[in-house]
Design a protein that fits this description.
Length: about 375
């Protein structure tokens, strides 16, 4: 068995083990906590799993108590499976008894890495690859892990790689804008010194020597004095002593503040700081949101503060959103049929699972009502009542 060297957008996932683990953890945090990703996955989950799951075995309905147990657990299992489908392209699960019934459980996202292996002896297999999992800080029996592959693409590490790239671009730009804003709250100054040879208070040779030393090392005579000042050395009756005593006291009372004496003939100039470019941040934000909405095929208008993003898909394509929900429901039906056959050791052909997706779609204008009427979602009396 040999490793199939894919070339995804993030090629470092096939590098060192540490980089792969870091990437998977960041990807899991992105899928599970990023608000717009959670919104889209939750909306598709609600559209697909609103109604009870109908399971039949050899054409016969299950016992009512078993049906209620499986409906509750399979609904929760399918919700978690959706996140793994979008992040990994497959669903990794194991079977564990709960109250004497074998039920499926999804592996936690971010607890494992994966790679695609090419089979050395595929035989008559149509798909000559297999997915191999490696635990992160945990170990598990790989023979007890079942994998439902719903993407079958060895050239892509994660289906949301491109969305994660857009998110990281927006995140880095936002961090840079935040750092630039913090810089505006502080004053940045440059201190320079002008040496006037005409104003000599010391001998010419000593002045020349001090000038060379300052030019080479940046040190001046006052900087070479002892910083540990004592009140008896600088009595309060002396102006210089009072100044040095106050500086010493300020440095002791405020560790974060460093008070020092500037060289003579110093000039202080404030440096202007560039303001953050909000237009660039907005552009990255718009690209990321458009990518998320297009990936999940969801029509939704979002607004966050001064940013307002509208989906590029016209309202007339609302039926494509419903078709996407139907396709996701069919994929979940195949998953649950396989899971049920594994749990109860049956042939998949003897099990049927049916999901009833939500028929209510987002209606934002009269054109949407017209489309629903053309698809016979509304009856004639209902249309008359609306208008």
């Amino acid at each position: 068995m040999s490793v199939f060297q894919a070339a995804p957008a993030h090629g470092h996932v096939h590098g060192s083990r540490q980089k792969q683990v870091e990437y998977v953890r960041e990807l899991a945090r992105f899928v599970l906590t990023e608000p717009y990703m959670c919104f889209c996955i939750r909306q598709i989950s609600n559209d697909c799993l609103t109604h009870p799951i109908e399971i039949r075995e050899n054409g016969r309905q299950l016992r009512p108590e078993l049906q209620r147990l499986l409906n509750t657990h399979f609904t929760e299992f399918a919700e978690k499976s959706l996140s793994m489908m979008y992040m990994c392209g497959f669903v990794a699960y194991y079977v564990k008894k709960v109250d004497g019934v074998r039920l499926p459980h999804v592996l936690p996202l971010g607890s494992f890495t994966w790679c695609i292996k090419r089979l050395d002896n595929p035989g008559g297999a149509v798909w000559p690859f297999e997915i191999r999992l490696d635990g992160i800080d945990v170990s598990f029996d790989k023979h007890k892990i079942h994998i439902f592959d719903c993407m079958q693409s060895p050239s892509v590490y994660s289906p949301v790689d491109s969305l994660f790239e857009l998110f990281m671009l927006y995140k880095n730009c936002r961090l840079a804008a935040t750092e630039a804003t913090e810089q505006l709250r502080r004053a940045h100054i440059v201190v320079t010194e002008t040496v006037d040879l005409k104003d000599q208070t010391i001998s010419g040779l000593q002045l020349l020597d001090e000038t060379r030393r300052y030019a080479m090392s940046g040190l001046h005579p006052l900087a070479q004095t002892d910083v540990e000042l004592r009140p008896e050395q600088y009595p309060d009756s002396n102006v210089t002593g009072m100044k040095e005593t106050w500086i010493h006291r300020m440095n002791e009372q405020h560790p974060e503040l460093r008070v020092s004496i500037l060289p003579p003939n110093s000039q202080v100039t404030q440096v202007a700081v560039a303001t953050p470019d909000v237009a660039v941040l907005q552009e990255f934000f718009n690209q990321y949101i458009e990518g998320v909405l297009s990936f999940f095929n969801i029509q939704h208008r979002m607004s966050t503060g001064q940013f307002r993003v509208q989906s590029a898909q016209p309202n007339s394509n609302m039926k494509n959103q419903y078709n996407n929900v139907l396709a996701t429901s069919k994929r979940l039906e195949r998953l649950l049929r396989e899971v049920y056959s594994v749990c109860f050791e049956l042939e998949p052909q003897s099990v049927s699972v049916k999901l009833t997706p939500q028929k209510k779609l987002e209606v934002s204008c009269v054109a949407d009502l017209k489309i629903l009427a053309e698809w016979n979602v509304f009856t004639v009396p209902q249309m008359r009542d609306m208008f």
